[in-house]
Amino acid sequence: MTYSRTACQALDAADPLAALREQFDLPAGIIYLDGNSLGARPKAALTRAQHVITQEWGKDLIKSWNTAGWADLTKRLGDKLAPLVGALPGEIVVTDTTSVNLFKALAAALALQADAPARKVIVTERHNFPSDIYMAEGLAGWLERGHTVRLIDTPDEIPAAIGLDTAVLMLTHVNYRTGYQHDMAALTALAHQHGAVTVWDLAHSAGAVPMDLHGAQADFAVGCTYKYLNGGPGAPAFIWVPQRHQGTFHQPLSGWWGHASPFSMASAFAPCDGIGRALCGTQPIVALSLVECGLDVFAQTDMAALRAKSLALTDLFIALVEERCAGHPVELVTPRAHARRGSQVSFTHPHGYAVMQALIERGVIGDYREPHIMRFGFTPLYTSFTDVWDAVDILRQVLDEQAYDVHAARSAVT
């Protein structure tokens, strides 16, 4: 099939989500395809930050813990996020980092296996996000109870890797490099069949693909808010604990914010009821406040509509690259099957880093991951079909002209 820029413009004109783009501050002349790494700024975030800093902090000072609702902000944000991932109210708090929350969830998952001393293995992918592996290995070493991490190389190896020794299956729903999406329900059922507990990392799927944590019978989940949820750089992450696990949820980071009565200042820790058990220390209110601006945009649409546009955008990008960049050594590593694809597309190129730097210099912002992977993220809230056409047109020019520096120095963040 042959595509044209005019056809892409027509798709934008008919797009029911097109108006949402106006709620984001997108720099002129920039095609932003890196929302899978850092979401664009909602315009409302600037006003919100100014209000929190000048009024709530500046004038109302410490009273704002009560008068501005700071004290329950983590839970209120969690309830706003819940519909996007198939959770119920009172099951999510927005707090800490993804890595810290993963530590909590893994610790709680292992605690559920305390009566099964033979279960000492955490199964995950070798190509999982490295921090997830590091946290699992760190927790296993810190416990000093014989826990180990078993790394598998492909999704096809997961069934054989789960056995009587498996305590936890820890997977990232959508792979950060390839965009491969796991079947959460099927793998959770498989884990449960073998007596294992599941921990899901939703960093690259929350706000990008529909999911149903309850329908999948998942055990625990974590995720970040600064990618597709547009919460701001380094925004607090979230942790999900279903109601069925909250009564027994135990994690070692027992800070005062998770205490049943924090201002009793008791010397002994007594966990609060419900999802508050997943909290630790005092919350970063300014950063949390900005997360709400991104979530408020999602309230104007639904995940089904976002998913339909995401698949249309990624289908178009794959088709255009393969049509217009034919003859160049670009290879698709993202699944073509819709059920296995997140909201990003990754291509390899022998000089992927250099090509990506050339694209960025020309106003097309994606990013690079080893080995040789150029990642392009598609955020349906603000990515247009014309963006896709123009991005591929610039990619074609860069490749045709070999307008990239193979000796380009690597930046600290790629």
Automatic annotation (TrEMBL):
Q: Which cofactor does it need?
A: pyridoxal 5'-phosphate
Statement: the UniProt record of this protein carries the keyword Hydrolase: yes
Per its UniProt entry, what is the enzyme's top EC class, as one word? hydrolase
Q: Which Gene3D superfamilies match?
A: Aspartate Aminotransferase, domain 1 (3.90.1150.10), Type I PLP-dependent aspartate aminotransferase-like (Major domain) (3.40.640.10)
List the Pfam families: KYNU_C
What residue ranges are annotated as transmembrane? none
EC assignment: 3.7.1.3
Question: Annotated pathway, please?
Answer: Cofactor biosynthesis; NAD(+) biosynthesis; quinolinate from L-kynurenine: step 2/3; Amino-acid degradation; L-kynurenine degradation; L-alanine and anthranilate from L-kynurenine: step 1/1
Q: Which UniProt keywords apply?
A: Hydrolase, Pyridine nucleotide biosynthesis, Pyridoxal phosphate
| Superkingdom as given in the UniProt entry | Bacteria
Xref: PANTHER family? KYNURENINASE
Q: Which NCBIfam families match?
A: kynureninase
Q: What's the name of the protein?
A: Kynureninase
Q: Which organism is it from?
A: Pseudoduganella flava
By which gene is this protein encoded?
kynU
